[in-house]
Write a structure and sequence with these properties.
Blueprint: H1 7-15, E1 37-41, E2 56-63, E3 75-79, E4 85-87, E5 89-92, E6 98-104, E7 119-125, E8 131-137, H2 145-148, E9 153-154, E10 159-161, E11 165-166, E12 171-176, E13 180-181, E14 195-201, E15 204-207, E16 209-211, E17 221-226, E18 233-243, E19 254-256, E20 260-265, E21 272-275, E22 280-282, E23 286-294, E24 300-306, E25 312-315, E26 319-324, E27 329-339, E28 342-353, E29 363-365, E30 370-372, E31 376-383, E32 389-396, E33 402-406, E34 409-414, E35 419-429, E36 436-446, E37 458-460, E38 464-466, E39 471-476, E40 483-488, E41 495-500, E42 504-508, E43 514-524, E44 531-541, E45 556-561, E46 568-574, E47 586-593, E48 597-601, E49 605-611, E50 618-629, E51 634-644
Parallel strand pairs: 11-20, 22-28, 30-36, 38-44
Antiparallel strand pairs: 1-2, 2-6, 3-4, 3-7, 5-6, 7-8, 9-13, 10-12, 12-17, 14-15, 14-18, 16-17, 18-19, 18-20, 21-23, 23-26, 24-25, 24-27, 27-28, 29-31, 31-34, 32-33, 32-35, 35-36, 37-39, 39-42, 40-41, 40-43, 43-44, 45-46, 46-49, 47-48, 47-50, 50-51
Length: 646
């Protein structure tokens, strides 16, 4: 009989030489095994910066304890660094292994636009704390503008209303919703509450609120109202815009617009201007319809007139329908406008000579009505209907200084400061030096940053005409688009008004023989306080008079750039339409360019080349035309020429 063996020995003996499970191990020290890794899902074009991004999933297949082919004590942990860890869940496969599922939501967006990089360490733990380390990979980042910056994208411009205001006047700043977009391409009008808009004005922040004109949500604005600024000066405003959806991830995700400038001006008293009144007359001359014009329609306008003998007269209306000069000497006309909180006046002196005194006329040519600081005007020229005269000039500057010149032409004048310049031309008769006349022309000079510039007005006036015959004046304001023109013909027929662009001709006839002062006003159609006026005296003769009858001048101009280098403009003057009212033949035409160059023609055609003043610059000239008939009767007319550079 064989002796009995211990059970353990028997078991060892019984299993010797058997298969895989023939040996029972007391310990399990081998790391668990794993197989194929699937994921991440989604794995491509994953937008880490999308607040609504989905969870990401990985699957690890074939997990089992390698020492005994069991799944006991197995766990799987993925380490996402600062974003924490995730513990896997399991499903048992048909072959007895485990499939681990790891799910993670990337809740911590990297500051500065850096997406997660590198590997995700994963620990698979088995029996007896044995471990296997593997790696997972991050999703492939989508191409997104938010990856480089979460700041809002500015597609539009803030709107200031009004853009120019006076001290204490409130104004509104609005930013259009369709001009604002998030980094993920969401427009502000699609989600208005997502954005915060502030305006930085004069060292203070103003919060904007959503506004929808006429209830149209597709055309909303973020608007803030400022109560008004106290100082007259230039200011800047900046719009500061934030995307609130990303504020928790990137607190400094604001976008600022470039500073926009605007000007707050002092409260200005409206000016009053005199229209229809010349500077010199003869005793017994009568002037019709002298008007005091004020831009404030609510102002009360009237006159005070002081006679040479010291007596005075007051009138309570803006228009003096008829005034006869019955004294020699100096009259002082004062136009007075009284409005809410102000009173303003304009004074004009009128010199009156004896009835038999031949008074020379005075007309300023080649001078515009508005310039920028730094502009230069060449060949400012004076004209008169008499030849034996002396010309002198006095220019009153904005700083109070006076520049004086002698001679018919100021060769060149440089505008060096901002403000109003007054050019006064005085023409004195050399035959009778006590007799003189003058014209004053006001010129506005503006800083180059000014957004509102007084229209530059150029007018071709005839000096004379005849009862019942049409006369024509041509007007152009080259630095403005459409302007509202008002023509006061000085004969009581009222205004001719026209909204026009470019060169505009106005035609009128007079019913009686007299001297008339024609005043042209060019008014900005968007700002009635922004206007320019020019006046000229016209002598209307009776065609039945026994005096010599001067020819009627008809002038046309056509300009084209000079062929070739484009250095200037070649201007054709065509006076062939001029004619004699009594049937005489026109035998001579003479044209004086800029007061210095004279050209004669027997056929009435002239050509003259004006230099190109260069981009952004304008130049103004006057040509003086004289037409003579076979009996020696002559007429003259000044033709204004405006040349703007390219």
């Amino acid at each position: 009989m064989r002796p009995l063996l211990p059970i353990g020995a028997l078991a060892l003996f019984a299993t010797a030489g058997c298969g895989k499970f023939s040996e029972v191990k007391e310990t399990c020290n081998e790391a668990p095994t794993s197989g194929f890794i699937d994921g991440p899902t989604p794995g491509y074009n994953y937008d880490y910066f999308d607040p609504d991004r989905p969870d990401v999933t990985w699957k690890i297949y074939g997990i089992i304890n390698s020492c005994d082919d069991t799944t006991e004590e197995i766990s799987v942990i993925a380490n996402f660094g600062p974003d924490g860890t995730e513990v896997a869940t399991f499903e048992e496969a048909e072959d007895g292994t485990l499939t681990a599922t790891i799910t993670h939501h990337f809740s911590d967006i990297p500051i500065g636009g850096n997406t997660p990089q590198g590997e995700i360490p994963v620990t698979i733990q088995g029996k007896n704390e044995t471990e296997k380390n593997i790696s997972l990979y991050y999703p492939y980042a989508a191409a997104s503008s938010c990856a480089s910056s979460m700041k809002p994208i500015i597609l539009g411009d803030a709107i200031l209303t009004p853009h120019d205001m006076t001290v204490g006047e409130s104004f509104t700043v609005c930013f259009p919703m369709d001009g604002l977009q998030a980094c993920d391409s969401t427009y502000a009008y699609e989600d208005p509450s997502r954005f915060s808009v502030q305006y930085y004005i004069a060292n203070e922040l103003y919060y904007a609120e959503a506004s929808y004109p006429d209830g149209d949500t597709a055309n909303g604005y973020y608007c803030a109202t400022h109560p008004g600024l106290d100082l007259a000066q230039n200011y800047n405003y900046t719009a500061i815009i934030a995307d609130l959806d990303y504020a928790e991830y990137e607190p400094d995700n604001k976008t600022e617009t470039y500073p926009e400038s605007f000007y707050v001006s002092a409260i200005e008293t409206p000016i009053v201007s005199v229209m229809g009144l010349g500077t010199t007359y003869n005793v017994t001359d009568t002037v019709e319809n002298i008007e005091a014009y004020c831009a404030d329609d609510e102002a009360v306008v009237g006159w005070e007139i002081r006679y040479p003998d010291g007596t005075a007269m007051s009138l309570g209306s803006a228009v003096i329908s008829s005034f006869t000069f019955d004294q020699e000497g100096t009259y002082i006309f004062t136009a007075v406008a009284t409005g809410e909180g102000y009173e303003t006046e304009e004074v004009q002196e009128v010199k009156v000579y004896a009835a038999d005194v031949d008074i020379p006329t005075a007309t300023i040519g080649n001078l515009g009505s508005a310039y920028y600081v730094g502009n230069t005007q060449p060949s400012i020229t004076g004209y008169s209907d008499q030849e034996d005269v002396t010309y002198s000039w006095a220019v009153t500057r904005p700083d109070g200084g006076i520049d004086e010149f002698s001679g018919q032409t100021i060769a060149e004048y440089y505008f060096d400061v901002e403000g109003d310049y007054d050019f006064q031309l005085t023409v004195t008769s050399n035959i009778n030096p006590e007799v003189h006349s003058h014209e004053v022309r006001s010129v506005g000079v503006y800083a180059t940053s000014s957004s509102s510039v007084t229209p530059t007005l150029s007018v071709a006036f005839p000096y004379s005409g005849y009862v019942g015959e049409d006369i024509t004046i041509s007007v152009i304001a080259p630095d403005h688009d459409t302007l509202n023109y008002l023509i006061n013909w000085g004969d009581g027929t009222g205004y001719t008004e026209m909204l026009s662009y470019g060169t505009t001709d106005f035609i009128h006839f007079y019913a009686t023989q007299a001297k008339y002062t024609v005043t042209v006003m060019a008014e900005d159609q968007t700002d009635s306080t922004n206007y320019t006026t020019m006046s000229q005296e016209i002598t209307i003769s009776d065609t039945t008079s026994s005096d010599p009858v001067a020819p009627q001048i008809v002038i046309e101009t056509t300009h084209n750039p000079v062929s070739g280098d484009g250095s200037g403009y070649n201007l054709e003057f065509n006076a062939t339409g001029s004619y004699s009212l009594i049937g005489n033949e026109i035998v001579d035409y003479e044209l004086i360019y800029d007061g210095v160059e004279t050209e004669s023609s027997s056929d009435g055609y002239f050509w003259h080349t004006y230099d190109n003043p260069g981009p952004g610059n304008n130049a103004y000239y006057t040509a003086y035309l004289t037409v003579t008939d076979e009996e020696g009767n002559a007429s003259g007319a000044a033709i204004s020429v405006s040349v703007w550079g390219d």
